[in-house]
Amino acid sequence: MKVKVLVQNTLKSMDILYSKTISSIAFIPAIVALVFLFLSVFMVQFDYSESGKAIKSNSHWLTLKDASTARSIISTITGGIISLTVFSFSMVMILLNQAASQMSNRILEKLIGNRFQQIVLGFYIGTIVYALFLLSTIRDIDSGVYVPAISTYLLISFTVIDIFLFIYFLHYVTQSVKYETIIHKIFNDTQKSLEKKCVNRDVHEPSYPQLSATIIYASKSGIYQGFMEKPLLALCSRENLVIRTEWPSGTMIIKNTPVLSVLNKNEISEDLREEMTGLINIHGGQNIDTNYYYGFRQLMEVAVKALSPGINDPGTAILSLQALGNLLKIRSEHYPKHEIVDQDKVARILVKERTLEEIFADCIYPIWDYGKQDRLVTMEMHHILVLLCIHTTIPVFHKMLDEVKRSEMYQDLNLDVK
């Protein structure tokens, strides 16, 4: 049992490390650079092969016999691409810093994780690696000069591609850091996660007769990120357990806080307790793909930051508010699963999820607290709540609409209309 717990903890640590690695800004550039390194080795071998020599003998324009000329070409290209790479990295860092200061530092993951930017930077670095390796293969020996002409001309082609990539990179980066683009991306990711997690069309919160219960406590402090579903479900089926999570995913908990309850047993072995504890995910970070609530939170934070006195950008707050309105409409029509069943259709895991009312209170009320004195925010809040009330009869929407109508700014707007 101890070995099994150790294996589970190792697998969980590897999974976290894997997620951090593939989301790193250096992951794609490193892969692309390795591809270019292997390509350079292959091209040099091909250059000196019989096939390469035949191609060069039949194509006189590929002939490059002067070693100093080849070195000058490769050195010039290497220096130019290094400058291009430094400038591109600097531009990305400046834009990231601007986005973090103007919106929220928690949206940086959206910008850093952009695959196109990473591929472009990887292409730059790969060209540099290719050029440096190529430069090291040029030799002057007694029997003649070894100049990889085909590889050198291929390097020139890569350089031309780099220049065009840089031109498009300038356009792409300036567009990707626009506030509406970032908000739209957060909205799309949250919507996909929401539709994946919330598959029920009606509310179904299962109840289980709790005759006895055993509490499983958190092994450390951090953000509760859920659990490893398949191993925990298999464990519950094997041991004939029914468990309930005590917190929704994304909740900050402290060490020794109750996190799971075994509902059908009042006592379990210490080894089983450790095995269950090892299947609970408690760590930092926010991933919208696994928890749509983070998307709601990020949009709320962007709106609140935009309404702060130092920034005073109600337009960005309105964009976030519109995205939240659309997501609340979707969430009001779709509900998450509250139970996970095994192969025999027996409910084994009862999952605690945030209600629509809780999400609304966490994400809309803070925006209203900061923006109730702003005319534009008040008008947009009223408009979105009216639309939500048309499509649903959920009381929290109507209650908030009444509060907006009673606000001083809304009364002033009515006086202006009169």
TrEMBL record:
The record, for InterPro entries, names:
DUF2254_membrane
Q: What sections of the protein cross the membrane?
A: 21-44, 73-96, 116-138, 150-170
Highest taxon listed in the record's lineage: Bacteria
Instruction: State the UniProt keywords alphabetically.
Output: Membrane, Transmembrane, Transmembrane helix
The name this protein goes by in its record: Uncharacterized membrane protein
- Lineage of the species this protein comes from: Bacteria, Pseudomonadati, Bacteroidota, Sphingobacteriia, Sphingobacteriales
